[in-house]
Amino acid sequence: MKIALLGSKDYDSLEYHLSDALSFLGYKLFHIDVKDVINIPYKYNYWAQKFFRRYDEYIFNKIADRIIDEQPDLLICTYRFINPFSIIKIKKQIKNIKIIHINPDQLTTFENQQIFATPYDAYFTKDPFIVDFMKNKMGLNAFYLPEACNVRIHKPFEYDRADLENKINTDVVAFGTMYPYRANMIGKLIEKDINVKLYGTPDNRFPKKEITDHFQNEFITGSRKAEILSGSKIVFNNFHYAEIKSVNAKFFEIAGIGGFQICDYKETLQEYSALDVKDFTYKTIGEAIELIKHYLPLANLRHEMAKKQQKHFHKYHSYEERINYILECI
């Protein structure tokens, strides 16, 4: 089977991991990104597509032509802003092709609802709430697809765990973009004198000194991410407020790496986890602070729990498992 993948080629993106897993499984793959047909910075291209209809149609018409030239059996789309007419064109030009969409984000990221205006053969999304709406309200062929970990990248850092914790010297770590909701929650930890280190992108629009002072001025990926998350005593993972019943990609990445995480409670967590979710989730920021203070001195317990979770996620929540499920559905 020849598979085409339409989406980002950035390292550690969903599409990067899908591409890696598809290649690992032995499929012939054609991966195309917007940057392959227009050589301008992504942010300018994004806004031009968003506000100029003819430009948007021009870009995705070029992408459609490239995909038609490849004659794939299956096209996997991940961008939320794909022009519906480009998908219609591909369907007309390639007989018997299956075209699906995988949406890895929460419900605030539907752009202009291009996904719902496009005749995909199947829709995959991570939130049961959205799946229910798509299937039972819009009558779409929608399926539940949680996020995953890449077992070749999201894996434990090869180092003695106790020695690594001494080296990294971090009680609580958080990483990613410092949105205001995340800053407010992390600020509550700092107020309680918890040793927090932050990696990723600070909030340059609404910065708070008490937050920015904890940034390490480093964006972590790959083995460096594994080193930091494995070597920190606790990984604080607070989900976006629009995650109704779903969880973020970090949840799977942290577990795959073998970090010990404390995160928001969601009812779907138990179906993913090898641990009882009440042992590592909170419903209030006060509960999160209590959990952090409870586990900080319990190194052996943290290591044991993280190892159990890591093995479970590599077995049941890899991108290969997700791809096999997708192919079964279609």
Unreliable stretches, pLDDT < 50, 5 or more residues? none
The major pleated sheet works out as: 6 strands, parallel
The CATH class name of the largest domain reads Alpha Beta
Query: What is the N-to-C succession of helices and strands?
Result: EHEHHEHEEHEHEHEHHEHEHEHHH
N-C termini distance: 13 Å
Count every beta strand, where a strand is a DSSP E run of 2 or more residues: 11
Radius of gyration (CA) equals 21 Å
CATH architecture of the largest domain: 3-Layer(aba) Sandwich
Structural commentary:
Keywords: Transferase. This is Glycosyltransferase. GO terms for molecular function: hexosyltransferase activity. This protein has 330 residues and is an alpha/beta fold. It folds into two domains: 2-145, Glycogen Phosphorylase B (Rossmann fold, 3-Layer(aba) Sandwich); 161-316, Glycogen Phosphorylase B (Rossmann fold). It is 44% helix and 15% strand. It contains 14 helices and eleven strands. The protein has helices spanning 14-24, 42-51, 53-70, 84-93, 128-136, 161-168, 180-191, 209-212, 222-231, 249-257, 269-272, 285-295, 299-316, 319-329, and strands at residues 2-6, 28-32, 74-77, 98-103, 122-125, 142-144, 172-177, 196-201, 234-237, 261-264, 281-282. The strands form two sheets. It has a six-stranded parallel β-sheet with strand order 2-1-3-4-5-6, with helices on both faces. Strands 8-7-9-10-11 form a five-stranded parallel β-sheet, sandwiched between helices. β10 (261-264), α11 (269-272) and β11 (281-282) form a beta-alpha-beta unit. The chain is globular. The protein starts with a strand and ends with a helix. The mean pLDDT is 94.
